[in-house]
From TrEMBL:
Signal peptide residues on this chain, from the entry's feature table: none
Keyword set, alphabetical order: Membrane, Transmembrane, Transmembrane helix, Transport
Main localization category: membrane
Pfam families tied to this protein: SLC35F
Record's protein name: Solute carrier family 35 member F1
Topological category with respect to the lipid bilayer: Multi-pass membrane protein
Claim: Transport is one of the keywords in the record: yes
TM annotation in the entry: 20-43, 63-81, 93-111, 123-143, 150-169, 181-199, 211-232, 244-263, 275-297, 303-325
Functional summary from the UniProt entry: Putative solute transporter.
GO molecular function annotation: transmembrane transporter activity
Keyword Transmembrane: yes
This protein's GO CC annotations: membrane
Species, as recorded: Dromaius novaehollandiae
InterPro entries for the chain: EmrE-like, SLC35_F1/F2/F6, SLC35F_Transporter
């Protein structure tokens, strides 16, 4: 029949566009789930510090690492073969030890910064994690970006600037200003460590496994944060006026933090560390919207403008796939031993290949590298 082929082709294009659009919306929505978890972390922390005078950031992180240890490290311990806890420690223990320390100190530095600098400064300087992740992804993960990605990143940062401007207009510049430089440096240091941790996390969940990453973070995080807790916060814990309300706040904080750590590798594997950090820019806005009812914050229309500006930037960034320039020899050297084996030519000059990432779901049977 004339035109039947054209009709089938048109239907196929419509179906493809619909799938891509649904996948785009799913990617953005997953990032917003992470932002809501961070909002819960911020609200419970605010209640603990301001209403109950429980300033225990190390103890709060320690609770999260203990949960990760009980769930994921235990899972690794009962596994058999190359993915067993002892086998992993034998091969990579010192790398995970360094990563655990980086993760602990990133959390500590940013929380500590609130004591010295303003809320607006923390929000703006915390965006430093984005260029850190981009540079590390470029040089170590070999991620290559397109013009639309940089446009999306700039739009997201403009949205954050709009929110900071609204904070100034409504007088939400909380924080001590006497040692502002110290606080600003703490934020920059924490953002840098967050960037390193996120890029390492992306590499591990793509090439090894999510459970291995969380199990190792739980093991070394609980050990070193326990030492830091004993040295720095044992007196603060004695000052906490323990009751059921404080207990519930600690439980709520730990649940949100555990959910964030458990769910973030899933989102990073589907999108990227850069996309996740762009999504997390909306977390402060969710906290603000909750604060309008809980803490009677002043409202400004700039907050809504900021929120939608960041979402537009996220959609722009997620609308086009990045691509990864990989040397297959490097990939084979560090690949997961239990994953699919990619046979390389025995002779001839090996050239780096270019593999385009996809917004779609990856399949385990497909090799991750294409040799040109």
């Amino acid at each position: 029949f004339p035109g039947a082929g054209g009709s089938d082709s048109s239907s196929s294009r419509v179906g493809t566009i619909r799938l891509l659009l649904m996948d785009l919306l799913l990617s953005v929505a997953l990032g917003q789930v992470l932002s809501l978890l961070i909002c819960g972390i911020g609200l419970t922390s605010k209640y603990l510090s301001e209403d109950f005078h429980a300033n225990t950031p190390v103890f709060q992180s320690f609770l999260n690492y203990i949960l990760l240890f009980l769930v994921y490290t235990t899972t690794l311990a009962v596994r058999q073969g190359e993915e067993n806890l002892l086998a992993i420690l034998k091969r990579r223990w010192w790398k995970y030890m360094i990563l655990g320390i980086i993760d602990i100190e990133a959390n500590y530095l940013v929380v500590k910064a609130y004591q010295y600098t303003t809320l607006t400064s923390v929000q703006l300087l915390d965006c430093f994690v984005i260029p850190v992740v981009i540079l590390l992804s470029w040089f170590f993960l070999l991620v290559r970006y397109k013009a639309v990605h940089f446009i999306g990143i700039v739009v997201c940062i403009l949205g954050m600037g709009c929110m900071a401007g609204a904070d100034v207009l409504v007088g939400r510049q909380q924080g001590a200003g006497e040692n502002k430089l110290i606080g600003d440096l703490l934020v920059l240091g924490g953002a840098t460590l967050y960037g390193i941790s996120n890029v390492c996390e992306e590499y591990i969940v793509r090439n090894l496994s999510r459970v291995e990453f969380l199990g190792m973070i739980g093991l070394f995080g609980s050990f070193f944060s326990g030492i830091q807790l004993a040295i720095m916060e044992h007196k603060e814990l004695l000052k906490v006026p323990w009751d059921w309300q404080i207990g519930l706040l600690y439980v709520g904080f730990s649940a949100c933090m555990f959910g964030l750590y458990s769910f973030m590798p899933v989102v990073i594997k589907k999108t990227s560390a850069t996309a996740v950090n762009l999504s997390l820019l909306t977390a402060d806005l969710y906290s603000l919207f909750c604060g309008l009812f809980l803490f009677h914050y002043k409202f400004s229309g700039l907050y809504l403008l900021s929120f939608f500006t960041i979402l537009v930037g996220l959609v722009l960034y997620s609308s086009t796939s990045t691509y990864v320039a990989q040397d297959p020899r490097v990939y084979k050297q560090f690949r997961n031993p239990s994953g699919p084996v990619v046979d390389l030519p025995a002779t001839g000059q090996l050239e780096p290949s270019v593999t385009y990432t996809s917004l779609g779901q990856e399949t385990e049977e497909e090799p991750h590298v294409r040799v040109a």
